[in-house]
Design brief:
6-stranded mixed β-sheet, two-stranded parallel ribbon, 4 helices, globular, binds 1-O-pyrophosphono-5-O-phosphono-alpha-D-ribofuranose, binds hypoxanthine, binds magnesium ion, membrane, hypoxanthine phosphoribosyltransferase activity, xanthine phosphoribosyltransferase activity, PRTase_dom, Xanthine-guanine phosphoribosyltransferase
């Protein structure tokens, strides 16, 4: 995971916005569905991919959903990703006809290891940053590399002081 501290900008996503954007992703995916029009399964990249994957699976009426879990390790400046939970590989095979969903691509490290496992799968994210964009087949919104995306599951409503105090 990239450190959020050096990021210049923040892009705050509400549940409502995420729902709309994940639906927009499903809409785009309809047009690139495999021959016959059906994806065999959705694979969510945990944990951030689970909410978008649920929405996409609902919109496209895909009932088979599995997960892959990828953990990033930081060894000083070098960061690498490892699969710590695989989907059912009998189901997934080489990924043909399978849709992989994540909330965003940033550096592309997560998707690199996922793609190695399922080279023929279609990879979709809701948001994308330029460094990782080429790892994704379909996405909805691009933000700049120096933007940190804040997701609704990491946020809480909070009181804010008015601009002018009493
Ligand atoms: O393109 P990358 O640089 O690899 O970054 C993108 C990944 O980082 C975040 O997941 P994270 O590993 O923080 O775990 P989480 O989904 O459980 O929050 C995000 O949900 C993506 O999966
Ligand atoms: O911009 C981001 N937001 C949340 N999680 C992330 N993981 C990598 N980049 C990001
Ligand atoms: Mg993630």
């Amino acid at each position: 995971m990239t450190d959020r501290l050096p990021h210049e900008k923040g892009f705050h996503v509400s549940w409502d916005q995420l729902h709309r954007d994940a639906r927009a992703l499903a809409w785009r995916l309809q047009d690139v569905a495999p021959a016959g029009g059906e994806w065999r399964a959705v694979i969510a990249i945990t944990r951030g991919g689970m909410a978008p994957a649920m929405i996409v699976a609902r919109e496209l009426d895909i009932r088979t959903v599995d997960t892959i879990s990828v953990k990033s390790y930081n060894h000083q400046t070098q960061s690498e990703a490892q699969v710590i939970k695989s989907p059912d590989m009998d189901l997934v095979g080489d990924g043909e006809g399978v849709l992989i969903v994540d909330d965003l691509v940033d550096t592309g490290r997560t998707l690199k290891v996922v793609r190695e496992r399922m080279p023929k799968a279609h990879v979709a994210t809701v948001y994308a940053k330029p460094m990782g964009r080429d790892m994704v087949d379909t996405f909805v919104t691009e933000v700049s590399q120096d933007t940190w995306i804040f997701f609704p599951w990491d946020m809480a409503l909070q009181y804010v002081e008015p601009y002018r105090g009493a």
